[in-house]
Structure formats: C-alpha cells, structure tokens
Amino acid sequence: MHATYESDGPLATLTFNRPEARNAMTWDMYQALVDVCDRVDDDSSIRVLILKGAGGKAFVAGTDIGQFAAFRDPEDGINYEHRIDEVLDRLERVTKATIAQIQGVAVGGGCGIALTCDLRIATPDSSFGIPVARTLGNCLSGATYSRLVDLLGPSLVKDMLLTGRLIPGTEALGLGMVNRLEAAGDIEAAVRDCALRIAANAPLTVRATKEMIRRIMAGRRLPPGEDRDVVTMCYSSHDFREGVEAFVAKRPPKWTGT
User: Fold this and answer.
1) Does the pLDDT value for residue 10 go beyond 80?
2) Do 78 and 232 meet the contact criterion of CB atoms below 8 Å apart?
3) What is the band of 68 on the pLDDT scale with cuts at 50, 70, 90?
4) Closest by Cα among 155, 150, 157, 152 to 219
5) What's the whole-number mean pLDDT along residues 237-242?
6) Cβ distance 84 to 113 under 8 Å?
7) What is the Cα–Cα distance from 68 to 136, expressed in whole angstroms?
8) What does the DSSP assignment read for 88-137?
9) Exposed/middle/buried for 45, CB within 10 Å: 0-12, 13-18, 19+?
10) Which of 8, 96, 106, 141 is deepest in the core (most CB within 10 A)?
11) Rounded Cα distance, 81 and 201, in Å
C-alpha cells in the first residue's frame, strides 16, 4: 500500500508510503487522501488527522511524473488541475484538525497538501516549493494560487514560483509557512503532543474555527472556470511537453515560450 492509515485514540495518521520515489503521489494516493478525510469525518472518536511521509527524506515530492507523461492534450491538464482542486478542497473541508508532519522535501503537490493542512510542524532540514517554472513548464489552478496567496502573501508566492527555488525549513518558519521546527528525533513526539492538545479542546469550537476561516478564504477565490485560459495556455504548450521529456531524460529543459 502506498498510503497507510492508522488510528490511536483521538488521533488518526495517514502515511504517504513510497519512500523509494520520495512519496511522489499517484492517482491512488490522492484518492486515499480523499477517502481518509471521509473516514475521519465519519468517526466521532477522531479529533485530529496527521499527514506524514515515510522514509524521513520526503513528505511528498509532488505528483509522479509518469502521470504527466501520459498527457496528450490540454484537457488532460485541465482535468489534472481540477482533480488536484477536488483533493485539496476535500482536505480543506475535513471537520477535524489537520497537521502536516514534514521531514525532507514538500514540493509541488506535496507542498500544496502541506499548506492546505491547518498546521505544519517540520524539521530544520525540510524544504518547500513548487518549482514548475524550472522543471515542467506548467502552472497551478486559480484555487491553488489563491491558497498560496492567502497563506504567504503575493510577494512570497511570486518569489517561490518565479524563481522555482526551494525554501529551507528555517526560512519557512520565519515566513510563517510552518508553525514549528523540531529535530528529526523529536518531531514524532512533538506532533503527537500538539495533536493531543487540540484533541482535548472543544470539538465544535475547532470545527467552527476551521469552517469560518475556510469560508473567508473561499470567498476570495476566482469563480470556477476563470482560470481555464491560463491553465490551457501552459498545458497545451511546447514548453510543457519539453519539460516532461527533459525531466524523464534527466536533462535541462530548453524553453521556447511557445
């Protein structure tokens, strides 16, 4: 199984379990995340959902590149971004508190998952980013850009996306991307302590706080479909096909802007 679920009293944990691929997400793994959100919402004994990656070197290293290689037309890109929107929206709507436990890289879709969680606790050697400007030449959906802007502000989002750089954990703490940094040997206990503190609080207050903030943020997003022209521009481009081929071949891409 590439995603494993376990519960311990009021705490539930979903582990992304492809350490040999730095936990890069397959379609089945994205579906597993949706299914776990449904599962914890249906279980009144669960108060906190923890997400983490196996192996200690990655939270999630984006979407498995093999799935992009199968894209044949712009609709594939539109459908992919729509699917990511569905997954992140479901994670955002889960009624229990969510904590991302981050060791190693959280990039691409993994960065999106981590930043959609309510809290992020990371190790100092963790790193965050969405480096599509230097890797694949695609773009994000309007909803994903909106989540990033709400959390980080437009200046930092532009810095991260335009340069394609990865932000180290120590910098991420100062920028408010993560709530706490813990040493690798301490992070498991620190996340558990934080989760149990939340679990001891009034569940309806936790739920109301999450939902009120979600509604405020959702009210600032683009109407559905208003990002279609931009997403189509990127996913129908020569540059996107070049980015995928270069990534698979492990060579630098040659951008043309077409």
Assistant:
1) yes
2) yes
3) confident
4) 150
5) 94
6) no
7) 9
8) HHHHHH-SSEEEEEE-SEEETHHHHHHHHSSEEEE-TT-EEE--TTTTT-
9) exposed
10) 106
11) 36
- DSSP class of 237: S
232's tokens? 């189509």
Structural contact between residues 109 and 67, judged by C-beta atoms closer than 8 angstroms: no
Query: Exposed e or buried b for every residue in 160-198, given b needs 16+ CB within 10 A?
Result: bbeeeebbebeebbebebbeebbeeeebeebbbebbeeb
pLDDT digits (tens, 9 = 90+) for 133-191: 999 999 999 999 999 999 999 999 999 999 999 999 999 999 999 999 999 999 999 99
Strand partners, 167: 128
- Tokens, residue 222: 């683009």
Write out the H or E segment, with its range, that includes residue 16.
strand 11-16
In this prediction, residue 250 has a pLDDT band, given cuts at 50, 70 and 90, of very high
Query: Quick check: 19 and 61 in contact, CB under 8 A?
Result: no
Distance (Å, whole) CA 80 – CA 55: 27
Residues 187 and 103 sit within 8 Å (Cβ to Cβ): yes
Residue 118 class from Cβ within 10 Å (0-12 exposed, 13-18 middle, 19+ buried)?
buried
| Overall average pLDDT of the 202-227 stretch | 95
The two three-digit tokens of residue 52, written as one number: 């983490």
Q: For the chain, how many residues are written?
A: 258
- Predicted TM-score of the model (pTM): 0.96
Collapse the DSSP code of 53 into the 3-class scheme (helix H, G, I; strand E, B; otherwise coil) and give the result: strand
